[in-house]
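Z., the sequence and structure:
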Amino acid sequence: MALDPQMRTVLDDLAATPSPAPNTLTVAENRAAGRAFAAFAGDTVPVREVRDTAFRNGDHDVPVRICTPETVPPGAPAPVTLFFHGGGWVFGDLDTQDHFARVVATRSRTVVVSVGYRLAPQHRFPAAVEDAYAALEWAGQHAGTFGADPRRIALFGESAGGNLAAVTAQEAGRRGGPAVAFQALAYPATDRFDDSASMYEHAAGPLLTHPWLEWFWGAYLNTPDEGADPRVSPLRAVDLAGLPPAFIVTAELDPLRDQGVRYAEALRAAGVPVTHRPVVGVPHAFLSFTRDVRIARDVLNEIGDAIGAAFA
């Protein structure tokens, strides 16, 4: 379980500046740290158009960023990919993982819509879930207004966003649509009560630690028993049959590794086509380091290619 050499260099550089454990920081301090991580993305990937807008969900607006790549042929409706950023349901926004949207849009040849769902603890469960599903409904109704095809929708999420993508795919089935053609989940949280080996092997990280994970759960949930709700723990859904094909990335040195593996296995057992992409030598959130870590760039490209192939 050796670290990828480029990943080790990045982590050594981070460790050279001592800082308190993230689970001891305030929400505001964690959000600031999350924004600072955007610097590790590297150069901005050029695209044809970026447009920020919002849609109404109940009593609030949900911001979205529509990213149209040069690889989408002009004049023809393109598939749409909804992207849910990571950050433990507590931090992250349309800017912190903008490189995810740009790279995946370019590689997949889809219009990527990044969703600025409400964050905990100001907005606890199920606020993020409701915004994520509302974004799917909005895309199904309005994709034509930004040159996309509402009949061809994929979901992509990273970490907590991977959780929301998995849950949204399930909610689309439970609520009768809109139809989802594909789901790409990068090291998703799928089971609040996971007790598998990786939770112990990598409890001290690197990057995501068990105490920090518990900090996130404490901020997101109203009560501990909500963890059994499939909208929190999609692995606990009674029936996974009929869900869209999935591309699931897991990281070898991640506490969440085994629950991602188990979700891939559960989908496959339910008859869902699944590609599982295990990545060795990397921790949780490794896709944030595309500037310095080649495997991060390669896997993010693979995710975009997998989404594109689903619509080929």
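The longest strand covers residues 148-158. The chain has one domain: 5-310.

Let me know what you think.
H.
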